[in-house]
Amino acid sequence: MYTTKYHKASDAANAASLLGASPEAKILAGGQTLIPTMKQRLAAPTDLIDISGIAELRGVTIEARKKLGVLKAKGGETITIGAATTHYEVANNADLAAACPAITGLAANIGDPAVRHRGTIGGSIANNDPAADYPAALLALGATIHTTSRDISADDFFTGMFSTALNDGEVIKSVSFQAPAAAGYGKFPVPASRYAMVGVFVAKSIDGDVRVSVTGAGDDGVFRHAGLESALTSDWSPASAAGVNVGAEGLLSDIHGNAAYRANLIGVMAKRAVESA
Amino acid sequence: MSEGIGARVLRKEDKRFITGKGRYTDDIIEPNQAYAAFVRSPHAHAKVNGIDASAALAMDGVVDVLNGHQLTGDGIGNIICGWGVTSKDGTPMNMGAWSALATDTVRYVGDAVAVVIADSKEIAKLAAESVVVDYETLPVVVGSVEALADGAPQIHENAPGNLIFDWEIGNKEPTDAALASAEHIVEMDIVNNRLAPNPMEPRSAIATFNESEDHYTLYTTSQNPHVARLVLSAFYNVAPEHKLRVIAPDVGGGFGSKIYIYPEEITCLWASMKTNRSVKWTSDRTEAFLTDAHGRDHVTHATMGLDKNHKIVGLKVNTKANLGAYMSLFSSATPTYLYATLLSGQYNIENVYADVQGVYTNTVPVDAYRGAGRPEASFVMERMMETAARQLGVDPAELRLKNFVKEFPHQTPVIMAYDSGDFAANQKQAMDAADYKGFEKRRAEAAKRGKLRGIGFSNYIEACGIAPSAAVGSLGAGVGLWESAEVRVNPVGTIEILTGSHSHGQGHETTFTQIVAERFGLPTENISIVHGDTDKVQFGMGTYGSRSGAVGMSAIVKAMDKVEAKVKKIGAHVLEASEDDIIIEDGAVKVKGTDKQMLWHEVGLAAYTAHNIPEGMEPGLKESAFYDPSNFTFPAGCYICEVEVDPETGVTKIIQFTASDDFGTIINPMIVEGQVHGGLAQGIGQAMFEGVVYDPDGQQLSASYMDYCMPRADDVPMYQVMHQSTECPGNPLGMKGCGEAGAIGSPPAVINAITDAIGNNNLNMPATPSAVWAALQEASKQAAE
Amino acid sequence: MELKDTRVIKADPATVWKAILDPEVLKACVPGCQEMTGNAEQGFTATVVQRVGPVKATFKGIVNLSDMNAPNSLTISGEGQGGVAGFAKGGADVTLTPNGEGTELTYNVEAKVGGKLAQLGSRIIDSFASKMADQFFQKFQDIVEGGGAPAASTAQPVKQGGFWAWLKRLFGGA
């Protein structure tokens, strides 16, 4: 690892200002990608700004829905997750599990226990690894990413593999989304890394809007799948998802699986995601 | 509870390992030590036109930057291959030069061209990054078949067409004739995948040159420190043996990869002399993928003939073995004498012929890896047997039973003479435990759940306990493969066993003490094992090839024989009895049929005080022995694997894995079961998960755990491990060896089971979900046609 | 990795050809190019900074134009040493064909990486290379269709946000 200067940020604003102060500074959240990369000497940030101890960036809040008319139906709560909340904290939040079990289940299957105790939701989406799990969830849930300077919709936030709409000196504070009426995540891990070879997140909002996103499979990161969305909009069922002919165009081929295999897995994982929803 | 032979004594070494108190090479700190960082080629094949180290040399804390021309200029010898293999035409093998630091040409990604010695590891790495090497890239070839093709890039001048040797074994004409007249022919192309060894502890070395005494000390991660010293001294001219001490302290796994003497250890020793500093190097995980000798990598075509009664009449095998860019220490023996000599399997086959081409490629050198040649042989044989059964429409167990060797000793057409075994007994035990009869019912039940269930056999045999020195010498080995031991009884009666075997996970500190406890009736806590230091142990050939039990422990037995003889003489003298009436039991020397006895520590004291020992007897109680085996040993067994495949994703789940082994005498069943568990995990790893992937330019695409898949605990089932043993007649303890069996026997069982499940026999290792899914697609496409 | 693509540029082949030979245009098109000196005849030396996720690598190397057959075809090739990261090299065989008012530009790209980039990043190498090629020719098209002169700000390296984010920022969006 090259020499770097460590800063412990006092709050989000302080982190943003420290970040803006140096062109080669990096935010350190859980460090589950950044630290290994630094150890490989492939990253040499001059400054590391640690946000893991910032209280305002941690925790999950669930705000009950305001419309009273449809109380019996599931979903509609406003869920906010702090950027520095670990995967372990998300996975083990009982209230969140009641409101949106798809996201707690997703968090429970990221990496291994060591990763889950350090890795954070903010770190995951800021890195936007093309095989990460959270980008799929936030895109399908139509989440909003709250930063130190603005709010960004997930559709605008993820701009291709490893790239986001974040500007220099901008720090993610939290993400929020409305609890879906139904949602599920089907993940097929790469046997070696256990990142997603294919991960499909399906979500149906309380208004009946269906969004389906796919991670791991696209050659430019997470994307929404129009074919699956339209099939599940007209018929929310595993069979409907399985019936979609998923093409291999634009999908990734690597030493673990070719595009045809990934196309097959998108269909299978979509089906399983709906089954679990 | 007894702590002798057959007792499940807990591992004595585990307390320090699991409390973090192990002492590994990287834990050794010498005063004023410096650190080495290697400058490695990012190209698989290139000319080195120049090295500019000026920036590195100008950095604070850099001691020196050294290159291959300096190394060869100082007379450091090229790295050797210790086993000469002769080609069909009688010519010796074509071996290219391998300098510890490349001089003019680099031949694989990771080939070292220079080394930086600096005050800290960080400075060394930073300086190594600043060294500018002028490479002129050359064409690259990575596969053995491609390397043999016309017009392939030439890797070493003195190996035309990249052919190192073209070797043969067995009886060619009779085999051809048998195949020509066979009723049934089974023919297959078989690939054995390339593996990275991945011991938990990466390689490491710390070398110290003591100028005032003209003496070197090397701590290193070695499975055989004496062999390392011999080779470093005799071939690399580092120092004569009496001026070089090699110590292999705690070593965290080897799997064969720590047998060899690598460029880094040689360089550290030499650099220590050049800089007059202790020089330490510890591999990181990426360096381990790039430089630890890989295993396997065979491309094979095999033909088997059977008569109308389904008796095998002949087997013919051609194998192209990828040996990488340079010839590692035993690289020539692994795909020849350790492989083709086992191609008769457990079967009585009159005619076997194999020829093997050893090939240079622009990849990491390939050498022995857990099983070394024998997994390749059992994979060929057991895939062929299962395929034959499918082709003939007969039960695979029946076909094997019909062809088993049933009388011993049995001379195969490929050198080996099997000394003992009961293959049918192992097969029956495994079939009963696996409920083979109930399989079709389970298959039907799985089908109802949409799953494809399959079952596969593997009846392996291996040659272990390597090896009779004269025999291996006649086959080309550069060393004898005996073992030595010394039994030191201290004046207080405690015992130290000095052994030339080396434990790097095998549990010698436990099992070796058990045989001594058994012999003298002492508690194991009074016995300790000394190993891994050339200044302490007289000599040793080290641990590999499942030899520590059959050869290493036999040497201890021979030394104990001498101790016992002397103890009896002392006992007879002191107790005033006839030697013939002296017995040793329960930690005492007794006169048979009387109550006269000396306690064990009294014997020790008597020997060392020498106040009252027989006239003419030397004082002291310490004996040594060298044991040279008379034959290989032949562990064998039957493995049955049952799997379920998810046709939607290609995911294979091992439902049950049953292993019935014949290891001869078992000293500690707990340790033996652990060895089998580990071996099975490694074999299952090869079959389903592991595989080194190169791109056509020789870049290793699987050089981290992001891409190289090691089996994890949840990937393997709860094994059913059992034994059905016959005693080995070749050594005093009747042991056969257990260290490699699991890795040797399991891959064919797994692949036979998966191909049974999916109905497509065309499946290579590793059978990853994507590979299995593709094979399923191919099968359904063929079914549709 | 090999990939082939075609795009139609609204300019005649002579204009396109001229742009290809313009060092300023070339510099503006190579994603992450920080410095480039030299000329079309003798080749260029360049410094290129690439970021992929947390990885940042600086490549120092050369860019050459060869097999020049004006105004029909040429090969653009580049090779850079990225220090600890390894090396990257790539080439594009470019063909220009008149297409109505414009020019059909066909490119056949081959990209290779070696060293740590290959050892650790194999899963994303192909995607990244195709993205780079796409950015290169998109930028080239934009410049040619925009009148042939790169905007002053294009000397900046393309930022982590990738081409579209970069474009959005350039035009004050996002």
From TrEMBL, chain A:
<keyword id="KW-0560">Oxidoreductase</keyword>
<dbReference type="InterPro" id="IPR036683">
    <property type="entry name" value="CO_DH_flav_C_dom_sf"/>
</dbReference>
<dbReference type="InterPro" id="IPR002346">
    <property type="entry name" value="Mopterin_DH_FAD-bd"/>
</dbReference>
<protein>
    <submittedName>
        <fullName>Carbon monoxide dehydrogenase</fullName>
    </submittedName>
</protein>
<dbReference type="InterPro" id="IPR016167">
    <property type="entry name" value="FAD-bd_PCMH_sub1"/>
</dbReference>
<dbReference type="GO" id="GO:0071949">
    <property type="term" value="F:FAD binding"/>
</dbReference>
<dbReference type="GO" id="GO:0016491">
    <property type="term" value="F:oxidoreductase activity"/>
</dbReference>
<dbReference type="InterPro" id="IPR016169">
    <property type="entry name" value="FAD-bd_PCMH_sub2"/>
</dbReference>
<keyword id="KW-0285">Flavoprotein</keyword>
<dbReference type="InterPro" id="IPR016166">
    <property type="entry name" value="FAD-bd_PCMH"/>
</dbReference>
<feature type="domain" description="FAD-binding PCMH-type">
    <location>
        <begin position="1"/>
        <end position="182"/>
    </location>
</feature>
<dbReference type="Pfam" id="PF00941">
    <property type="entry name" value="FAD_binding_5"/>
</dbReference>
<dbReference type="InterPro" id="IPR005107">
    <property type="entry name" value="CO_DH_flav_C"/>
</dbReference>
<dbReference type="InterPro" id="IPR051312">
    <property type="entry name" value="Diverse_Substr_Oxidored"/>
</dbReference>
<keyword id="KW-0274">FAD</keyword>
UniProtKB/TrEMBL annotation, chain B:
<dbReference type="InterPro" id="IPR037165">
    <property type="entry name" value="AldOxase/xan_DH_Mopterin-bd_sf"/>
</dbReference>
<dbReference type="InterPro" id="IPR000674">
    <property type="entry name" value="Ald_Oxase/Xan_DH_a/b"/>
</dbReference>
<feature type="domain" description="Aldehyde oxidase/xanthine dehydrogenase a/b hammerhead">
    <location>
        <begin position="19"/>
        <end position="139"/>
    </location>
</feature>
<dbReference type="InterPro" id="IPR008274">
    <property type="entry name" value="AldOxase/xan_DH_MoCoBD1"/>
</dbReference>
<dbReference type="GO" id="GO:0016491">
    <property type="term" value="F:oxidoreductase activity"/>
</dbReference>
<dbReference type="Pfam" id="PF02738">
    <property type="entry name" value="MoCoBD_1"/>
</dbReference>
<dbReference type="Pfam" id="PF01315">
    <property type="entry name" value="Ald_Xan_dh_C"/>
</dbReference>
<dbReference type="Pfam" id="PF20256">
    <property type="entry name" value="MoCoBD_2"/>
</dbReference>
<protein>
    <submittedName>
        <fullName>Carbon monoxide dehydrogenase</fullName>
    </submittedName>
</protein>
<dbReference type="InterPro" id="IPR036856">
    <property type="entry name" value="Ald_Oxase/Xan_DH_a/b_sf"/>
</dbReference>
<keyword id="KW-0500">Molybdenum</keyword>
<dbReference type="InterPro" id="IPR046867">
    <property type="entry name" value="AldOxase/xan_DH_MoCoBD2"/>
</dbReference>
<dbReference type="GO" id="GO:0005506">
    <property type="term" value="F:iron ion binding"/>
</dbReference>
<keyword id="KW-0560">Oxidoreductase</keyword>
<dbReference type="InterPro" id="IPR016208">
    <property type="entry name" value="Ald_Oxase/xanthine_DH-like"/>
</dbReference>
TrEMBL record, chain C:
<protein>
    <submittedName>
        <fullName>Carbon monoxide dehydrogenase</fullName>
    </submittedName>
</protein>
<dbReference type="InterPro" id="IPR010419">
    <property type="entry name" value="CO_DH_gsu"/>
</dbReference>
<dbReference type="Pfam" id="PF06240">
    <property type="entry name" value="COXG"/>
</dbReference>
<dbReference type="InterPro" id="IPR023393">
    <property type="entry name" value="START-like_dom_sf"/>
</dbReference>
